[in-house]
Specification:
Blueprint lengths: L11 E3 L19 E3 L12 E6 L5 E4 H5 L4 E8 L14 E10 H8 L7 E6 L3 E3 L2 E3 L2 E6 L8 E6 L2 E2 L9 E3 L12 E7 L13 E5 L5 E7 L6 E6 L5 E2 L5 E8 L4 E8 L4 E4 L1 E2 L8 E7 L5 E11 L15 E7 L1
The structure holds ligand MTE and molybdenum atom.
Length: 332
């Protein structure tokens, strides 16, 4: 599946909802983030198939009809673009939270009998073209094999309906808890391998520089896989006017690959802290937080939300893709 027609045959993206527009727990399909590096392949369910080979004893070849006859699983998961692979320091907040339907990849792999040496899974999309002036035969990502036991899906539904074309029709990979870039759309081949994939999307792009204790780059890189702790304030909206001496509800969403222990709301530049209530975890779906703030005095305030993991890791104040979200408000 290497020369599927592309329409469009150039990068395509949708403007994401802004944080104050993320009022729905489950984002409508038409409002999901969309990011296509090379364009959108024109694929029908009839011409699609999935091959799983490489370090397996029994390679597998599945048609779409065969795929949808397998046991179906649903997963609620946050789906977040990490932003430009060239700028890990810019928070883009391209995020949504959706319900994926599909087949557990662990079940498919069990049929293939992976060999012990298999450490990574390479996932290949049917899209091809040019990105950043580099000619790419396919969009390829890799995932460590131990991650597959979690809820990794070969998904063919988004919010209970067939995947829209731009979201990967007929089927895509979904790795809940990993950044969206790892969720390979138009998935047609999976290869089990001993090493990471040798593709521009796994070597040249989507590897963050690692900083040493001094804060300077060590020269090493880390793949853009697990989602770092993050949160957004949905309400109040930017520049909203609030009343002094009146309770205001501040609410939003928090998510991470790891375990979020708390969300704190900072009020003002030298923040005064309010500990938010956080709803229980549901897999990798985002979690609603709420806090009550009673502004005492009129003035201009900046509200910020800080998600913290049980490891102590929290959101950076600036210059990171998961830097805190700040909302300016006016109190009268
Ligand atoms: N085959 C393929 N898969 C892809 C991409 C792509 O360009 N080609 N873009 C990735 C990126 S960077 C993101 S953020 C998500 C976006 O998924 P969506 O468009 O369905 O929301 O898809 C990922 N999967
Ligand atoms: Mo992305």
């Amino acid at each position: 599946m290497t020369n599927v027609a592309m329409d469009p045959a150039s990068p395509y993206m949708r403007h994401p909802l802004r944080p104050h527009q993320l009022t729905d727990r489950v984002t409508r399909a038409a409002d999901t983030i969309v990011l296509c590096h090379l364009g959108i392949p024109k694929l029908s369910a009839a011409e699609w198939s999935l091959t799983i080979d490489g370090l397996v004893r029994r390679p597998l070849h599945l048609t779409f009809d065969e795929l949808i006859q397998k046991p179906r699983t649903e997963i609620h998961s946050v789906h977040e673009c990490c932003g430009s692979p060239l700028r890990p320091d810019i928070p883009t907040r391209r995020v949504c939270n959706v319900v994926w339907g599909g087949v557990r990849l662990a079940d498919l792999l069990a049929e293939c009998e992976p060999q012990l040496e298999a450490r990574f899974l390479w996932a290949m999309g049917a899209d091809h073209g040019t990105f950043e002036n580099v000619q790419c035969d396919a969009f390829v990502k890799d995932v460590p094999i131990e991650r597959i036991a979690a809820d990794v899906l070969v998904a063919y539904e988004l919010n209970g309906a067939p995947l829209p074309r731009e979201n990967g029709f007929p089927a895509r990979l979904v790795v809940p808890g990993f950044y969206g870039t790892n969720n390979v759309k138009w998935l047609w081949r999976i290869v089990l391998a001993e090493t990471r994939a040798d593709s521009p999307f796994t070597t040249r792009w989507y590897n963050d520089p690692v900083n040493g204790l001094s804060g300077h780059p060590t020269g090493e890189t880390r793949p853009v896989w697990a989602v770092a702790p993050e949160s957004v304030i949905v309400s109040p909206a930017p520049n909203q006017t609030l009343e002094a001496e009146r309770d205001t509800e501040i609410w939003g969403w928090a998510w991470a690959d790891g375990e979020i222990e708390s969300v704190d709301i900072g009020v003002g530049e030298k923040p005064e802290w309010i500990n938010a209530q956080l709803e229980p975890r549901n897999g990798h779906a985002w979690r609603r937080f709420t806090a009550t703030w009673r502004p005492r005095q009129p003035g201009e305030y900046s509200l910020s939300s800080w998600a913290k993991l049980d490891s102590g890791e929290t959101q950076p104040a600036a210059a990171a893709r998961n830097a805190v979200h700040r909302v300016p408000v006016t109190v009268i």
